[in-house]
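Q: C-alpha cells for this one, please.
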Amino acid sequence: MRKRGFTLIELLVVIAVIAILMAILMPALSVAREQARRTACMSNMRQVGVALAMYQNEYEKTPPKTQAVFDYASPASRSNVLKLLRPMISAANPEAATPVYACPSLKDNPNPAYAPTRTSRTGYLANAVLLGRKATSIRSPARMIVMQEGWSLSNHLWVQPEPINRSEAALAGLESTQYREWHMFASQSDHPSWFTVDRREQTANVHKGGGGFIFADGHTDFRKHDERESGDYGLVHPTLKASVPYEATWENSILPLDAAF
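A: Here is the predicted structure, written as C-alpha cells:
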C-alpha cells in the first residue's frame, strides 16, 4: 500500500499553528531575556558598590570629583572614580577589561568620539555632587545615588549631575558651584552623545523604564526612572531649598540646583 503524504493544506495549517505559537511565545521570551540581562547588570553593580565601599573605608572619602573624562581607564587620564576602583574589581592591570562596568542591555555609542574601547567601556554615570567628599559628610548615604545607568556604552566617563563651575578650584572643592542634569530628558538635537531623534529619558531607562543605582553606602537597587527626585542626588532648589520632583522635560533636566550639604 502506498504511503499517504501531507497535503498542501495540512502543511499550511501546521505552519500557521507554529506561527501562532511563536507569536505567543516571543514576547514572553523577550521579557525573560531582558530580566536575565537586568539580573546580570545588578550583579555587576553590586560588585562596583562593594568596591566603592572598600575605597571609602580605606581613604575615608569618595573618589575625587571630575568633569567628564574621555578614555577614562587610560594610564594618561586624570584620576576618576572608575579608574580608581579598577584595583578593587581585580583590574589593576591597565590592559585588563572591566565587564562589571558594562550593562549587557546597553549598546555601543555609535558616535566615534564616544565609542567604547576594550578597557574604557562603561554605561555608568557618576554623581559629581558626592565625589571628592569625606564619607562622613554625606547625609543619608543609603539614599544618596553615586552612580546610575546611562544610555550607551562609551569610553567616556559621564558625570551627571555635573558641576556648572568646572574650574580646577571648583573640582577641588575650593569654589562653590551649582549642579544640573541629574536626569536627562533629551535627544540627539541637544547633544551629539545621544542618538535618539525624539526627546526621551536617557538615564536609568534601559530596563523597561528603569535602571540600576549604586548608593553612597555601597548598596545597589533598581528603580523606575520617574520615581527619582533631585534630593536622591543631594540637590535642592536654590530658592525653595527643597528636593525637586522628576518631570519629563528638558527644562527640568537643566535646572541649576544647589548641593544640599
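A few notes: The chain has a mean pLDDT of 92. The two ends are 91 Å apart (CA to CA).
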